[in-house]
């Protein structure tokens, strides 16, 4: 019985352990009948059964515990397809012996979809992982999933906070690499839903790193940090050596926290970790919460768009980076990632720790972005110039990419006009083919 107390207390801390001081009121007391003997025996049997269930020792290996997930159809709030394990194993198989086996988190997201397809196309095995949350239209995420299906990339619907599911996944697939792109993105949304940033970018990241740490073999990790970590840094172009201790948004703060957490896991557990600071990535299959995307939608609808400017009419500019260039940077970072050194959750030697900027090195004012869109859409925008709200935005971003160029061979080659042209073509095709007008 001594063992039972803490277990029961876990389930219902209100249940008292000592004899209950239960005083039946008179109305119930007079109706009370002593139960028949058969009922008493049934209760006793049930009680012993429960006692056996709760007191039986837990499986000695974490793998044993996870095995119980094998036949689970639901994990958290997510629905797993009945044969998800077989599908994941198959999808993770590289075409050649030297190919990677990569887990791509956030695979139904913008960058995740592109990276997963690029990896598959070059012969690597890929398993996608995404929680399909409703931060923006789920229909777009489902459409990206269909695209992944067509490229034979299997995607698990799960949350990176689901430690049991991740543990089970790492048991059945020995991933060589993890491309971690699942995150709560968006700079301004952090004002509305701050906890979602902590949930995904801090808790979720730690849960994933724990799973990687415990995996045998440990995978090498490449993950998406953000240009926003430079915050109020005014030294341009932004170099990886510049200060990143002045975040201007909670989003930036959680990405910066991610970089520090990654360092701790690298230092303690021997995980090989590479962080990539993305600079305003745009392109086909992009994110509807980003300015270039909703500007396109609003220009076509004839709806007013707001163009922010700094104090004294200072220009607001971004180092917009085209998706194909970022994908090349991601793949190069995976290729350059050295192996993790830990095993059995313990560090066996120093492991690689890297951070790279992946930008375009040519900032463009937001007003210029709008004029390019106007030309491509052959429609005049209804513009309203407003002071930049103090909700997390920074005035400008500009990447110094010499480190990524030197160590990854990273060389962005798409200018904003070319990239936006590809985006607009995709946008018109995607929403046009849905037969219902998006504008
Ligand atoms: O590079 C990054 O690290 C970040 O890039 C983007 O953040 P942001 O550059 O702010 O991109 P948008 O939200 O698309 O904004 C682009 C520009 O348009 C401006 N803007 C935005 C909205 C608006 O109504 N008007 C307007 O002028 C913003 O001030 C900003 O200068 C992404 O949303 C982040 O998830 C990402 O991490």
From TrEMBL:
InterPro entries: Epimerase_deHydtase, NAD(P)-bd_dom_sf. Residues 102-339 form the NAD-dependent epimerase/dehydratase domain. One of its GO terms (molecular function) is UDP-glucuronate 4-epimerase activity. The chain crosses the membrane at residues 38-57, 99-119. It is an enzyme of class 5 (isomerase). It is a multi-pass membrane protein. It catalyses: UDP-alpha-D-glucuronate = UDP-alpha-D-galacturonate. It comes from the Eukaryota. The keyword Cytoplasm does not apply. Pfam families: Epimerase. Gene3D superfamilies: NAD(P)-binding Rossmann-like Domain, UDP-galactose 4-epimerase, domain 1. It is found in: Golgi apparatus, Golgi stack membrane. PANTHER family: EPIMERASE-RELATED (PTHR43574). Belongs to the NAD(P)-dependent epimerase/dehydratase family. This is UDP-glucuronate 4-epimerase. The lineage of its organism: Eukaryota, Viridiplantae, Streptophyta, Embryophyta, Tracheophyta.
